[in-house]
Design brief:
Blueprint: H1 2-24, H2 28-82, H3 87-170, H4 173-186, E1 191-195, E2 198-199, H5 208-216, E3 221-222, E4 229-231
Helix pairs in contact: 1-3, 2-3
The structure holds zinc ion.
């Protein structure tokens, strides 16, 4: 058990080094992720508006074709009006003219609406395009900054990670599992030292009998107050929070 506990103390030292290296990256990884998300959202908006603009253009072209047909019909009816021979014929053609004129006015309104939509969509696209470019260059900067930081600490990280896996393999699996669980819950510090008769993790006092047991280092003892694994080491391996 003593070897297991000593192994945990070493494991914790390595975990702290790794945490310190990770802290050097700050919140850059999150910043990169957030920027990517924003960029994806804008690109999606851009492409959906482009599709709408194209559909709008197609619909407008169809309406323009219809308008031409109606105008041709109107001209034809107006010509026929000169050649009428009866009142009945005159009334019939006049009715047709009224109908076609109504359709022309309807189609012109439709075309106007398409033009308005086109204007709005084009303006939106013009706003989004430079925004995408800005965010793309922002992402590029952040990404290369992050890559540099990772590169600068890569070798060190790797060596600590190797040490970590060796240490973890040398300690009883169940104890490593317990260590990890406490570490996750308590923010990277799972092992506390007996210092001035108290737990170095939470500073709560340890009763004399427990202190004796902790000093013997032959059983896994958890601090009753904070739940950390208590060990007794020399001053230089003391663990603080
Ligand atoms: Zn404690």
């Amino acid at each position: 058990m003593k070897a297991n506990l000593t192994g945990l103390v070493e494991l914790q030292k390595v975990d702290r080094e790794l945490q310190a290296l990770e802290a050097l990256r700050g919140d850059l990884p999150q910043q990169v992720a957030r920027t990517k998300e924003k960029l994806d959202g804008l690109k999606e908006e851009h492409s959906s508006k482009k599709v709408r603009l194209a559909d709008n253009g197609t619909a407008k072209a169809i309406a323009e074709g219809e308008l031409k047909d109606f105008q041709a019909k109107l001209a034809k009816y107006r010509d026929q009006l000169y050649a009428v021979t009866s009142n009945r014929e005159y009334d019939a053609i006049t009715a047709e003219i009224d109908t076609v004129e109504g359709k022309i006015s309807e189609t012109e309104d439709k075309i106007l609406a398409f033009l308005e939509e086109e204007e709005v969509l084009s303006a939106d696209l013009e706003t989004i395009e430079p925004e995408i470019k800005d965010i793309e260059s922002e992402l590029e900067d952040k990404d290369s900054e992050l890559k540099q930081k990772i590169l600068a600490t890569e070798a060190e990280c790797k060596s600590f990670e190797e040490q970590r896996s060796q240490l973890a393999a040398s300690v009883d699996k169940r104890i490593v599992y317990q260590y990890e669980r406490i570490r996750t819950g308590l923010g990277n510090t799972a092992v506390a030292d007996l210092r001035n008769d108290a737990c170095s993790g939470c500073r709560s006092n340890i009763p004399p009998q427990k202190r004796v047991e902790i000093k013997m280092m032959n059983q896994l003892i958890l601090c009753e107050s904070c739940g950390r694994i208590l060990v007794s080491t020399v001053a230089d391996t003391a663990v603080t929070t």
